Amino acid sequence: MYRILEKEVLNPTVTKLVVEAPFVAKRAKAGQFIILRVNEDSERIPFTIEDSDPEKGTVSIIFQIVGGMTELLNAKEVGDSIHDFVGPLGKPSKIDGNKKVCIIGGGVGCAIAYPTAKAFQQAGADVTTIVGFRNEDLVILQKEFEAVSDHYYLMSDDGSCGEKGLVTNKLEELINGEEQFDEVVAIGPLIMMKFVCLTTKKYNIPTVVSMNPIMVDGTGMCGCCRLTVGGEMKFACVDGPDFDGHLVDFDEAMSRNRTYADFEKHAREKSCNLLKKEVA
Q1: pLDDT of 153
Q2: Beta carbons within 10 angstroms of residue 166's beta carbon
Q3: Residues in the chain where the model's pLDDT stays below 50
Q4: 16 and which of 8, 47, 167, 169 could share a cystine (Cβ 3.0–4.6 Å)?
Q5: Which phi and psi (to 5°) does residue 215 adopt?
Q6: What pLDDT shows up at residue 194?
Q7: Those residues with Cβ within 8 angstroms of residue 263's Cβ, 6 or more apart along the chain or in another chain
Q8: Share of the chain above pLDDT 90, in %
Q9: CB 45 within 8 A of CB 246
C-alpha cells in the first residue's frame, strides 16, 4: 500500500498527488511513468511521473479526471492509500545539456512537459517553454515552469491569460525570429503534437513527442497503445513513450484513441454511482 501524503486540486478537472513510494522515487527519471491500481479490484492505469524526491521517498503524479478509475483515484484523500504503485517504467527521455531546446506542453500534458524541462535545465541546456491552455482557469504549474525555463510563454485559446493563440503560433514566431532550436519536445493532446510536428518539419528541426495519451495497460500486453512510427509498428509503453515526431502517424493514433471514448464515459458514470452509494 502506498500512502498519499499530499493532494492538491490544480483546476476543476486536474489533481496532483504526492505518494510515498521510495523505491520508485530512487530510480525515477524524466519521461518515465508508473502503473497504479486504486483498490485491489481496480484496473491498472499508467501515469507519468511529474516529479520525484529520492531523499523524501516521494513521487508526484498529476492526472485529469476523465474516466471511472481517475474518478475513484480523485476520491482518495491525504492519509489514504493506493493499492499498487509500480515503476518507474518506460524509457527515460534523452537529455543532452548541450542544446537549445523548446519544450511545448498542452493542457494536462504540461505535467509531463515539466519534468522534461527541469531535466534539460539541470543538464545545462538553454530551455524555452511554451505552454497552452483553453483558458485561465485551466492553467497549471506556471511557477514551476518559470523556475526551470530561460524563457517561458503562456498561451490561451481565449486570451484570458498570457497571449491569445495556439502554441504553434508562438513556436513559429520564435523560429522566424532570432531563436534557433536544436530540438523541440512536444507533450500534450495528439492534435497539438501533430501540428507542432508539421510546423517544425518545415524548418527541419528535430522533434520528439511523448505518446502517453494513447497508453492504457502500460506493459504492451493490451496492444491499445500500438502506433505506426516510420512505417513500423511500435508500442508507446515499452518502445517509448518518446518518439521522433516526424515519423509518427498521428491520424492513425487519433483514430484509435477515439475508440475508447464511449467506454471511458460508461466507466466514469459507473464509478460516480458507486461513490454516491458509498457516501449515502
Answers
A1: 97
A2: 19
A3: 279-280
A4: 8
A5: -80, 140
A6: 95
A7: none
A8: 54
A9: no
| Strand 183-187 versus strand 207-210 pairing type | parallel
Residue type at position 9: V
- Give the whole-angstrom CA distance, residue 181 versus residue 119: 17
Summarised one tens digit per residue, pLDDT across range 171-203 is: 999 999 878 899 999 999 999 999 999 999 999
Task: Report the pLDDT value the prediction gives residue 279, as an integer from 0 to 100.
Answer: 47
- Give backbone dihedrals phi and psi of 220, rounded to 5 degrees, phi first: 90, -5
Give the C-alpha distances (Å, rounded to integers) separating 152 from 48, 122, 167. Answer: 22, 16, 12
| pTM metric for this prediction | 0.83
CB 97 within 8 A of CB 133: no
- Give the span between the Cα atoms of 152 and 163, in whole angstroms: 12
Task: Round to whole Å and give the CA distance between 189 and 210.
Answer: 10
* Residue pair 51/60 in contact by the 8 Å Cβ criterion: yes
**Grid coordinates given for 222:** 493490451
Name the amino acid, one letter, at 139.
V
Three cell numbers, residue 56:
523524501
